[in-house]
Amino acid sequence: MIFTPDTRSSLVMTADMVNTLPGTASPDVDGLVDLDGLAAYLRVHPYSGSIRLDADELDAIRRIRPRLRELWALDRDSAVPVVNAMLHDSNAVPRLVRHDAYDWHIHATPDDGPLADRILIEAAMAFVDVIRADAYERIRVCSADDCGAVYVDFSRNGSKRYCDTGNCGNRMNVNAYRQRKAQESD
Question: Cα(59)–Cα(71) distance, rounded to whole angstroms?
């Protein structure tokens, strides 16, 4: 499975945004409660165009997170109307652009459009690629019994089971090892 670099980046960005919701990477912690949290997110996932970094922008971005999270609860066919609605609601008009260190890629909203719309459209465009590549099985929720974080499995063989938000894989492997040892000693 090969995605273009901008699609891969958008998928990671979307998963990271979803994982700011309570009940994902941290059970009761909202990872996007203030402008400092938004600024930290934007340092990891920079956007071109206007960024106001004010309370209204933060509120708008917080409101789109459940829509983004929904993409991880659907199968490929069920995701299509959701993605189409995201594109429609945000007035997406795709165009090719090249800027900064990025080669030709797609922007689907004006650079001065609301940041929440740009995030939503970028996510929707990335999911268009996932759907077209018939790779929706790579859209996953962490298999750790105490984690609800989302991720995209970019592994070559599609065998990734745990997120990268914590030590879920290590923790679950240690738990399984301890259970095997306990059963062996019985």
Answer: 20
Q: 128: part of which helix (H) or strand (E)?
A: helix 115-132
Residues 151 and 140 sit within 8 Å (Cβ to Cβ): yes
**3-state DSSP assignment of residue 65:** helix
Q: In a 10 Å sphere around its CB, with 0-12 CB exposed, 13-18 middle and 19+ buried, how is residue 119 labelled?
A: buried
Q: Which residue in 48, 50, 45 sits closest to 68, CA to CA?
A: 45
Q: What span, in angstroms and rounded, lies between the C-alpha atoms of 2 and 44?
A: 23
pTM above 0.70, yes or no: yes
At position 77, the amino acid (one-letter code) is D
d(CA 66, CA 88): 17
Instruction: Give CA angle at 164 (4, 129), nearest 5°.
Output: 25
* H-run or E-run covering 124: helix 115-132
* Parts of the chain with a pLDDT under 50: none
Specify the amino acid at residue 105. Answer: H
SS3 27: coil
**What residues pair up with 107 in beta bridges, in sequence order?**
95
